User: What shape does this take?
Amino acid sequence: MSDTKTPLLEVQNLTKTFVTQGSGAVFAGKRSFTAVDDVSFAVQPHETLAIVGESGSGKSTMARIAAKLLEPTAGNVLLNGTDMTHAKAKDLAHFRSKVQVVFQDPFSSLNPKHTVERIIMAPLDYQGVKPPKKRRDFVRDLMDRVGLNPDHSQRYPGQFSGGQAQRVGIARALAVGPSLVVCDEAVSALDVSVQAVVINLLKDLQRERDLSYIFIAHDLAVVRHIADTVAVVNKGKIVEHGDRDSIFDAPQHEYTRELLSAVPQINPEWEAARLTRAQTAQKENP
Ligand SMILES: Nc1ncnc2c1ncn2[C@@H]1O[C@H](COP(=O)(O)OP(=O)(O)OP(=O)(O)O)[C@@H](O)[C@H]1O
Ligand SMILES: [Mg+2]
Assistant: This one.
């Protein structure tokens, strides 16, 4: 990757220390825990950066700071080269229109009392991006694009399946026309077959809308299918960061090797897709 390009998003030397109040005689007093420890990475336009690592290693904390949902204890967040770490309302609104998030549990991230139309429109209302009369058609088009029936725009999240609800979450994220979507375990709660369809939707949307993704997943077969680059996280630090194939085929760090060997099974669906891709690439570049 050339470092002469300005990254779409860059985080520099991020640290996050959580301070918690202990209880009881033995554990009374403040205790601190550093969940993210001096982490730097960059996401280029059109790139999918996957962040992998064990549960509790700090992936979500990094992603939340990168999306400016959480303040870092130290370090900086840059969007297109501009430091947004301490952005105030106007710059923050701009940041939110460029960086959106899709979470793991679609139901807990969608307001159950709002219609899907209202949910998808909410970021537009907030940003004041479109005249109200155009918004309704805009929402219908977006629902159609993510594979939802636009006639269901007056339904509530509870009336959708998990996969459909996650499509609502994706539509809501896309509504403001972001450049980067942070997907924190966005497909992890879905059935494998639904997962494959949603992943392919994300890939299609990436091509159509010039999106970058930060993609967090436990399933390394999914990561291999979708990522361009992979950052491997252990105990709040990035231990290895590189192209997908070099991480999977020639991991340099002992922790990466352990992580890969802990998931030996290959999802046949992803593997078939990978082989097809490899064969196509070979035909195009013999
Ligand atoms: N608000 C908080 N207060 C205190 N500790 C926290 C807070 N949020 C996260 N942590 C701690 O920081 C560490 C990293 O959490 P994080 O959610 O980033 O991990 P993760 O890699 O996303 O894990 P998982 O794969 O299970 O989602 C964990 O030990 C967690 O308990
Ligand atoms: Mg997490």
